[in-house]
Design brief:
Length: 105
């Protein structure tokens, strides 16, 4: 499930009759729960709102979901091979890598 770009996994605790959710695209630990799916959705939204407010009160920037940028360290040889393959396909390195990763993710 998602809310404002935050993604959560959900598990059912049958013994307790509760759904438990955990936000998976931040380093901060954000969890929530509800007896019904509607309660779970509301708790998820409340958790995100509370997290953003908690950060604001402490002068901390809330961790935002993935920006779309990441750094990868490569050997010079692999970098050269990727640049060559990208040029052969008429793409930038970034475009080539993004397209390649799209096929395997």
């Amino acid at each position: 499930m998602t809310h404002d770009g935050y993604v959560a996994t959900v598990e059912l605790d049958q013994d307790a009759g509760l759904f438990h959710g955990e936000v998976i695209n931040t380093r901060d630990v954000l969890t929530f729960q509800g007896h019904t799916f509607i309660e779970l959705q509301t708790a998820f939204a409340d958790t995100i709102g509370d997290y953003i407010e908690w950060c604001r009160l402490r002068g901390k920037e809330p961790e935002r979901p993935y920006s779309g940028n990441f750094t990868v360290r490569l050997s010079p040889e692999l970098h050269r091979r990727i640049a060559t393959a990208a040029a052969r396909s008429g793409k930038s390195i970034n475009g080539f890598v993004a397209e390649t990763l799209e096929h395997v993710a």
